[in-house]
Input
Amino acid sequence: MRDGRQLEAEVEALLADESHADHPLHKALAGLYTEFQARLHQIERITQISDHYQSVTREASLSLSDRYAKQLRQLQKIARISDRYQLIMRDLNQALRTASITDTLTGIGNRRMLMESLKAELARTNRMKRTFSIAVVDIDRFKAVNDTYGHDAGDKVLTEIARTIETDMRDYDTCGRWGGEEFLVIMPEIAAPAAAQAIERLRNSIRALRVVIGDHVVEVSASFGIAEYRADENLSALINRADAALFAAKRAGRNRYEVAS
Amino acid sequence: MNNLKIEGTQSTPAVSCDMDTGIVEMRGDSYPENSYELFSPILNWLDDFLKTGGRPLRLKLHLLYLNTSSVKAIMDIFDLLEEAHGKGFDVGVNWYYDQQNERVAELAEEFREDYTFPFDIIAQVE
Output
């Protein structure tokens, strides 16, 4: 394969040669060569930002074909680098998304996550005509733990309870921290009786927790309000019923669950 | 010739070009609506600086996200440096990245490919 510069020199020499001026191919070759230069110029304008810069390039020493090849390499490099940036951006977005639905203290899902899950569960249930239940979980006398042992201790208790809830519940249940000392569990495909059984197991697990705080061993318990979704109920109503059941559990002596009517 | 100073914005980097020290710093994200408007003055400044003959030039880049036209523009700048380097000028680039973000270092290596002037990729603890 002859080098580009040689070919161009040949073409220019042939076009300049008077004796070829009337050759049938002359006009076509001249047109093609002009077009070739114009295309190259176009590509250079795409790959370079600054018009000014073009006056500085040492293009004069390169053949047209070499300049063309150079611009192609430049374009490929730009595409590769741009792809890398986009991968970084995508991962950043993913990390941000995860952070936005995670409770920083316990690592469990946060309220935003719970709301999204509740909405999704509601939509699914209405479509499939199934059921689901929720339970609000409230730590009994949590304030006393903070007051007696300090806030770091309280944080440790919260974290261990979060772990216990996650461990006890099934993989397709959704658990999250609803507020200060409150958690919420979403149980798909589960009616109130089965939900109550699951929550009773959780109640025992929490009661059996022994949280070590320095020289002390702290025990806790939790109260639970369970509500099974009623057809065409909205989320607000469902949560209110669960809250009312929780309130009843507290009033009845704590460390127990109540099922909403 | 004068120093060049461009304020950074949400979508464009802060730029400072100092003709006494020969140091050009760029810092931040770059996704300008019009990359010509942003980079043309910088290229002009670099060109003028190199014409004043022989003083060392150092680019210190603390760049985060570059949109595609900014990638092109940075490569324009590097091409300029490569040409100067070929003529024997003292030019170089320091590309700084957050130590926790190795991928930006890999990215800088892609940029560096094909260039022969000094191009250091430097980790920073942030």
In short: Chain A is about 60% helix and 15% strand. Chain A has a mean pLDDT of 90. The interface with chain B takes residues 47-50, 52-53, 56-58, 73-74, 77-78, 80-82, 84-85, 87-89 of chain A (CB under 8 Å). The CA atoms of residues 226 and 259 of chain A lie 5 Å apart.
